[in-house]
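Problem 12. The chain below contains 339 residues. Write out its predicted structure in token notation.
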Amino acid sequence: MNTIAAVLRAWMREGRPFALASLIGTTGSSPRPLGTALAVDGQGAAVGGVSGGCVEAAVYLRCQEVLETGTPAIESFGYSDDDAIAVGLTCGGTMDVLIARVEPDDAAIAAALDAILDGEPVTLVRAAAGDRLGQAVAITAHGFSGPLELGATDLPAASGRTGEYAVEVHTPPPRLLVYGAIDFAGPLVRFAKQLGYRVTVCDARPVFATDTRFPEADEVIVDWPHRHFDTITVDADTAICVLTHDEKFDTPLLERALASAAGFIGAMGSRATNRARLARLRDTGVPEAALARLRSPIGLDLNGRTAEETALSILAEITAVRNGAAAGFLTEARGPIHR
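Solution.
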């Protein structure tokens, strides 16, 4: 639901009800994570998706029915050998979709969407069985919102089913810290925003670190990179991209970054630049175990030349590291695509 949260909140503010179809269960190979959603309003407009294309048409039609009748439903989709013409996931998986009508004053959905848009954690719990099917409650830092009463239910830490409830856990977006407001940073920021990152651009040079150059960034900071880094807290969901390849910026920043909990630390530059960078970091006392965390030259080997191709290779490497993937060619791999 994260990717369509802004649209759904706008619909609610405009007084437009909609049907919300949410992926609440999967078995086998499924291309989308739990909590992925498709929404359809009264004018037939659709946003989002639940399957990557396999069953969207069937879910869309069911959304229109639920929107008209107001009766929630759970629909299961999957490939059937006995019915070759059935709509299903031809990749071999099965999926359960909860479809419910959402009114503009729905407190639970509104609270969940507001938290997502504010970058705050939220757990959305909905009844997935019985007379309360479709009823919801949102649990945020501000408390509970919605009519669904949970009692003493123990909720999972991740999205999934627990008893008669479907649980969606929405965490704050991962952070991308881009140090160096160079031309390669522009497409890196744009692509990262499309992938759901909260992006900060930092550079000590005010002529380059401007909102005009990086309109998609969540924040643009004019400061020395290491001084900015000293003011923030990073975690395993933070990726750091050092694009300056200038030792007066790189060395003090990387000393700090390599000692932090950041999940990804990469630096731009040639192999010769990287060798010199590593030598300087060793001279400052950075241990070998920390140096081994540095991914430089940054990016996957796509043999790209343009700023856009470079940004693609950088974000592809970050994605592979976050997902624990080897980043090879799928056509040469064996085993399931979705793990």
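Discussion. Confidence is low (pLDDT under 50) at residues 80-89. Students who got a different answer should revisit the alignment rule from Section 12.3.
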